[in-house]
């Protein structure tokens, strides 16, 4: 299972401290890349007539799909891994979509066969699609008298995500040669709705009219970019656009695979990079597609953590990359469940000193996964520094049951898992904490209203609330004070989280007033994009945070902030009282 079990760590390109180049970057001097061999490839990276073609991988069956765009039927071929449903249930946000755009004179089926994307999709666990251009070719320039190919490809990518139950915030990658490469660049630059994270184009750049647009007339986005040059044109304008968009400040020259490559990148964030490689073989080959996947597409993910700049790029991380251990175990007969655990490296030393460790659970959102929750929240990084244990549970079919029913199975799963952790590790019973994202926040609220005595504090962030009527249920306790930190994105819509506006209001009132009896005006703390109202006049602390420039997504740096400013300060004593540390 691709990322849920293993994914190679992203490569890091290191800037040297040599002299400045004409672009003002620090770079490592190196001989200029050799000119491309012209014997077997054209300037737009196609095989020359009569050239011996590389063997194609065995053909895999493609599904022909038809969608209606602007009243017109359009078609694309799709290849989804045979176990895509399982991949989705185990790690829905780890199933990417690769859009491969054929060149003029080539069919979408031939593109699939020559590139080998279907075989790679089966091996690596992503979905590959191959849109079909009209006989007149791709409408790269958005000519209003022709079919809107931009809207078509955006719609095709969205249809694939819907068909396989993949989250709308997942990563999409664009690849194309010749006119297909022009189309890929146009989409990457102009159509944020396609949700592209990376683009690879061969012997092609965007339309001159697009490249001539003022920088502030195009959507702001950073993107992992790989430009392949097979002829004399170095695509200087296209490369300049992406350098500016990515804010690159360093440069390196090295071989990627066997290709001479110049990489512009951000020193403090090397996954944000723009590559230019010489290619001496046809773009449409399985070996080139594998190189693109293994050296770029498979190593980067986009988080939707700001609205004004189309999110941010991050290195994709596997369970092993993050130092987590996966467990699949039946805590009850016939009910295998799974979770990831982080144990800090100082665990044995602390236990030898007679200490017990705090324990934090972090629940993923609907259509999320334990791995993705770990990657976005980074609780384990905080735990490494502060010396506590983190558990990332995984919901059945990537979802949670958040009903107020007394026999809620996921509440029971949590209780069983808590006992499992106490049996396996030296846990400080008085310092157990809950956190969640979206539906995982709803589950955090659901557990805490019934079992508040188990926790020193909870941090349900972002969104995710119970229905307003839930708080009248007899199992809901109001007799136990509990520090609570709730948060939401300023641009979240009420429809984007359980309970809607009524649920949010009810949750705030329940924790702030009904349980913790805070009625005085709050203190206001502003920290960058975060504005937090802090109540401390009642039985226990309550915080309400709104983060600007973000919608329904995890707030960057939130775990560290919540630990430092609230969670680590509290303990639940054996008599049930709260102690501020």
TrEMBL record:
Give the matching InterPro entries. AB_hydrolase_fold, Peptidase_S9_cat, Plant_Biomass_Hydrol_Est
Q: Does the keyword Signal apply?
A: yes
One Pfam family, short name please?
A: Peptidase_S9
Keyword list (alphabetical) reads: Hydrolase, Signal
Location of the Peptidase S9 prolyl oligopeptidase catalytic domain: 382-459
SUPFAM superfamilies in the record? alpha/beta-Hydrolases
Enumerate the transmembrane spans.
none
Q: Which PROSITE patterns match?
A: PROKAR_LIPOPROTEIN
Name of the protein: Peptidase S9 prolyl oligopeptidase catalytic domain-containing protein
Q: From which source organism is this entry? A: Variovorax beijingensis
